[in-house]
Specification:
This protein has helices at residues 5-18, 30-41, 67-70, 114-120, 186-208, 267-279; strands at residues 23-27, 47-52, 58-63, 88-89, 104-107, 110-113, 123-124, 135-136, 142-146, 149-154, 157-162, 167-172, 175-180, 210-217, 222-226, 229-233, 240-243, 249-252, 259-264, 290-293. It is an alpha+beta fold. The protein folds into four domains: 1-78, Ribosomal Protein S8, Chain: A, domain 1, CATH 3.30.1370; 82-127, Dna Ligase, domain 1 (2-Layer Sandwich), CATH 3.30.1490; 135-208, Alpha-Beta Complex (Outer Surface Protein A, domain 3); 210-293, Ribosomal protein L6 (Outer Surface Protein A, domain 3, Alpha-Beta Complex). It has a four-stranded antiparallel sheet, with helices on one face. It is extended.
Length: 307
């Protein structure tokens, strides 16, 4: 896993130039694409393009300058890092002699060079990129706000959520717009992104729903559905009855009798309920008796041999 994507990109460019390589690839992101546009404009690279991969992901193919022709090797340095964010005013940055290097800032005006930021009179501060995007309501999905509570209604049901006092939410022409009330307050900016993400999830859940599946393994271990109750046979002297919330529906798998499916429009409620059932018989690596998520990999262990 890449902890610092921008640092990884700059390291790839630096190493490619030192190795006299004319092309280099890197994982795609919008922030990297904006950064490469600036490098291309200032002739630090020749060009770049987005390449589709087999698993519906994209990568960046970057074409570099020929060092043998330009007779110089560009240098790239990461200043603000994940472990130590550095925020500066553009007036505090001194321009380099003969413009041999440039500073690139992530600002409210997106990724721009320091002299463009100085012209716009903005501070180099990393702001929320996702929070600025409105939430588009899907077909047959409605949203309304009443007494600091947002209600999202769709084909599968209705969800409600409280709105924090530090953010404001409005519904405009089929879109839900979230804005912070105080940009100087760090909590307000954090809630801006979080509130937008929660509302976007609510819109998706009431239109598509959410599903979780469990698998049970063991001799005489099984799931049974009795009305709104889930009956578990998990090796005790008695069966365990679990009452299912009315917002969750259960269904046994038609092909695999040891698998059960849960559906709901409330992902948080469904996740807590399924995790509660799994905790009743956690995966046991020696005997192979457990309740686990479908697709979950359990590393088996061998029995300890006697002397």
């Amino acid at each position: 896993m890449i902890i610092d994507p921008i640092g990884d990109l700059l390291t790839r460019l630096r190493n490619a130039y030192l190795a006299r390589i004319l092309e280099v690839s890197a994982p795609y992101s919008n922030l990297k694409s904006d950064l490469l546009k600036i490098l291309k404009k200032n002739k630090y690279i020749v060009d770049f393009e987005e390449v589709d991969e087999w698993d519906n992901k994209k990568s960046l193919l970057i074409k570099l300058n020929n060092v043998r022709e330009t007779l110089y090797v560009p240098t790239f340095k990461r200043i603000s890092k994940p472990g130590q964010r550095i925020y500066v005013w553009t007036k505090d940055i001194k321009k380099s002699r003969n413009w041999k290097w440039i500073y690139i800032l992530s600002t409210p005006k997106w990724v721009i060079t320091w002299y463009e930021a100085r012209t716009l009179n903005v501070v180099g501060e990393l702001m929320s990129r996702i929070g600025k995007l409105p939430v588009v309501l899907a077909d047959k999905v409605e949203a309304k706000i009443l007494d600091n509570v947002i209600e999202v209604k769709g084909p599968l049901g209705t969800l409600k959520a409280d709105i924090h006092e530090l953010v404001s939410v409005s519904v405009e022409e089929g879109k839900v717009v979230v804005t912070p009330k105080d940009l100087e307050n760090p909590l307000s900016k954090a809630l801006w992104w979080t509130t937008r993400a929660n509302i976007n999830n609510m819109v998706e859940w009431v239109s598509k729903g959410y599903k979780k599946s469990l698998e049970i393994n063991g001799v005489w271990y099984k799931f049974e559905i009795a009305g709104n109750k889930l009956v578990l046979s998990i090796g005790f002297s008695h069966k365990v009855d679990v009452e299912t919330p009315k917002e969750i529906t259960m269904k046994m798998d038609e092909k695999f009798k040891n698998t059960i499916h849960f559906d709901s429009i409330d992902k948080q409620l469904l996740g807590e309920f399924v995790a509660k059932i799994r905790a009743m018989k956690k995966p046991e690596p020696y005997k192979g008796k457990w309740i686990k998520y479908v697709g979950e990999t359990i590393r088996r262990k061998a029995w300890k041999s006697g002397k």
